[in-house]
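Mods, move this if it's the wrong board.
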Amino acid sequence: MEDAHSVELDLDPETGTALFGVFDGHGGRQVADLCAANVVDAVRSSPAYQRGDVGEGLREAFFELDNRALACAEAHLAGATATVALVRGDRLYVAGVGDSRCVLSHAGTAQILTNDHKPDDPKERARIQNAGGFVVWGRVNANLNISRALGDASFKQDKNLSASEQQVSPDPDVRCVTLTRHDTFMVLACDGLWNALPEQQVVAYVQRRLNLRHTLGAVAEGLVAEAMQPQRCAHDNVTVVVVQFNDAVQASQLAIGTGAVDSTTSADAAAVTASPPHV
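Not the wrong board. Structure tokens:
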């Protein structure tokens, strides 16, 4: 089992900021675990985040997590994809490297807020080749099937290049959207879910369960169970984080909480991780 996740509902209590992250490890779970344990500190300590630039703060946090992973001898052969979402007021910020995804339900329609970083993409291939690598069978150096990740030290050996110019880059795509009353929930998950279920099917599944007043934990568990069905299973780990927003999101009212006892609670989250029997 190489997945990890992080949920921090009080990242910044003064601004009501919450953080959600999914990390899909490869070559070992060390980098995924390191990211889950350090992402909150990396964001909070980012100079850009401290001056109020949330998007750039997320980007700086990814580089910091990558530096910490590269400095960890035990994680030398390991890496991880990362998808991290921050909610502040009516703004949703999403950053990602690799092929984990964040999907927002907007009026019942799935909106993918992340990009899959694959070696066959022309821009990614050009960077890989400029850094002395090659792409074959859709893999960097016939090995890694993603072109951006945290860790993966063996692909980041050219000391004449910046971190974002290496064969495998830790530089995330960052996106910001304004939440409205039509945005009811989001799902962060590793590729184990998305390889098994289309995004729109995931959104429809979650909405049906929420309409039946299932708990978020039960919804996340149900998604994992669906993905692990023998006819669907991608033979991969599956980690899912489900975050529900309130019906009318307003900048002055959005708050993050963990239960319904607080009438100001506007979002709730549940996370579930599972492995197929052979993993």
